[in-house]
Queue: 3 jobs
Job 1
Amino acid sequence: MPGADWQAEIAILIEAVRAGGAVAKARHGQKLAIRQKADGSPVTDADEAVDAEIARVLRGARADYAWLSEESADPPAQRTHARAWIVDPIDGTRSFMKGADSYCQAACLTEYGRPMAAAIFCPPTGVLFTAVRGGGAMLNGAPMRVAAPPSLADAIVLAGRAVFGAAAPFSVKPIKALCLALADVAAGRAHAVAALGPKSDWDLAAGALLVEEAGGQVCNADNTPFAFNRADPRQSGLLAAGPQLHALLSRRLAARGHDSLT
């Protein structure tokens, strides 16, 4: 069976994101201790508590795998194992801080830098996205596929307004949480997601596998493939969509040209 080798790992990932989600949900809407990280982004005591809970499950089950989380990580020199857990304890921290529901827990297992199993859990809705390489992508256990818009004008693209310009010939909606945006593309709820500037492994790894296993394409904004769990976790942006739209948007990012879905 495709993906059979990863079934035990996906079960661990599901347990981990659900456990982390329970911690996040209990803290949602409560008073949070907030501080600024070195890069200027916020982190709360809830992020750290969820990180610890997910680590308890994942590292407890596979202590020999490398660990890379937004809130904690093995030293780069020690992240040399073939397999690594890559985790975003709370994707959408700013939304979470405001008491909004646009947040999730995301966790992925990579092998030699390639995502092999992934789970994204949304505590406010109870929705669980999963993917196993070669085994497809699922939304609450049901298969999901990327969607192709009937025309460019019908496309829903999750991105900042500046990415494609004010005159973009499609609908542009904001990204509230990057992992959720990728999950929405995989589920056919949106047609594409694009982001410029540095992103990190934990922003992308789980969602990238969802999109790939749902029949889409995903890469850096400069059209180069992702490689995760390197010494430097930064990636140069994101573009994810179904194959035809991906090719079109990639050309627009490169040249700001005028293409059509024909």
Note: Residues 219 and 226 are 6 Å apart (CA to CA).
Job 2
Amino acid sequence: MKLLTFAHRGEAQAFLAAFVFKPVEFFFDGLLKSDEYYLLITGEGPHTASEKTITVLAKFNEEITEVLNIGVAGSLTNKLKKQDLVWVRTAYAHHAERLEFKSFSSLNPKDMKSPNDCMTAFSRVLSNEEKKKLSHFASLVDRELWAVASAANLFKIPFRALKIISDDLTPTEADICKFVKEEAPLFSEKLLTEFKTTETETEALKVLPIEKENIFLSDKAFYFTTSQERKLQSMLDGLKLKGISPESLMKNESIQKIKETEKSPKDKTRLLLLFLGDQLNPIAVKIRASLEEILSPLSDAKITSTFDSAFEDDWLNLSVRIQSSRDLEKVKNSLKIFSYEDFKKILDGQFDV
């Protein structure tokens, strides 16, 4: 059974009319059930969407096989016009002045082919300046998808997202209010028609297993531990969802340079996984660049710095070889210049995008 989530009842009204839903006695209002679906009205914003979706999945996760977030979104590109229907590929999130490190990709074949990623904003995005900043990472913006996708990921349940563009590139508060009052019925009907069409394509709705790809594992330039093999496969699966094949990766100039270095197979594997991680999450590239800038005083003193590659923990490991008093003075001076607080701020998401 699938769980359909909507921010507002207006977006769901065509679905409520098309299927026989009955209210479910639950901790809060807004949860309904038919013979085929659960339907949840989450309310607007990532916080309430996260709380309600997690609560429903915690209770009914043994029944729910898939989560679909359906509703309106704003355009971040001139290519998406009002009333365009979009199946979302990847969900990102923007909170205040920072981007969330984690992103979530749909596992559905139809969504894989979509070039459209969605940015969930923790506040309404109305200005051209805000839209331009977010457009570097996604082509549409909403208020709930990332939270719903995160909840589904927590319970290891696949998700999909169907959005209809509710406004042009430069919406106003009045435009949004107009949609709620006047255009919700039309948008809801269009969403329902697309949803029904896709539901009939039963093969497209299946989460297809991705065959294990050994193109890197069989390359003698690399040496993988068991845990690294699992990490590699997870990354390749994620990149396939973005339309990037292992074959194209192997031809990538950066990977070729890694293979040609004088480093050991173990070091090459570490660099390979780092590169694949950057391709999977482009935000990580900006985080790493910011960290390298902060750590440059230490690098100048030949101090080797390592940190959590997943950016989850704020530890910093330093290693240095001192062979003279002059070396020691360089280390002392570099530590005076280095700011651990600035390092920690970057890991907390305070960096320029």
Note: Residues 202-213 have pLDDT under 50 and may be disordered.
Job 3
Amino acid sequence: MVELKNVGKRYGKTVEALSDINLSIGQGEIIGLFGENGAGKTTLMKCILGFLGYTGEILLDGEPIDRSNIARLSFGTCEFSFFPELTAMEHADFYADHFPKFRKERFRGLIEFFEFPAYRPIKNLSMGQKSQIEVILALSQGADYIFLDEPFVGHDIFNREDFYKVLLGILEPTETIILSTHLIEEVEGFIDRAVMIHKGKIIGDVQVADIEENGDTLVEYVKKLYGYESDRVSRSLEIITGEKTKRKSEE
């Protein structure tokens, strides 16, 4: 289990990116991490992975996360972390050398399924293909906890649907997915649990099945939780069109 206890993160003296985060992530879960741009989703993941300093405590099965256990966590990031000059197959060799539990058969299977150009330098590939290799490597590392930060950059809807289906088919009962995405409606039938973050604080943590039992969809639940105003667009348009009309009459 990954446990976060009173975790906080500041950038400089004034920007509080995370505040008093308490969260437990068990093995075998598929978790959606939701929040607006700048809410703290990526910062939260990077703190867990040790990429950023923080206050509070983050533990993996009761122990601090360090070189002795960091291989149990993997990360697929929309910021890209690959070596651009290397091919996908050269990345596989690198991972196999550094991660004893690297899943070679899973890697080959995903490469074949997505018809990925395995022998071309990654720098020469499309945006969608670059994000695809990030996900493939994260899933193949052999980690227990797989963090995916906006993994669908550049992907069309067909690729995304295929990804959900394949992922559900290959995951083992002990593997956990923590998926940060804005595509809430698409992942509703895929995730077990939804964690909502707003301005650096967790404002919701719920099982998707419980939302459905109450007759809501995940999108409706998230809108209510964030206080989404359904008439926001119409009110803005009224103001904008009113200003246009006023300017024309003045002319």
Note: The chain has one domain: 2-250.
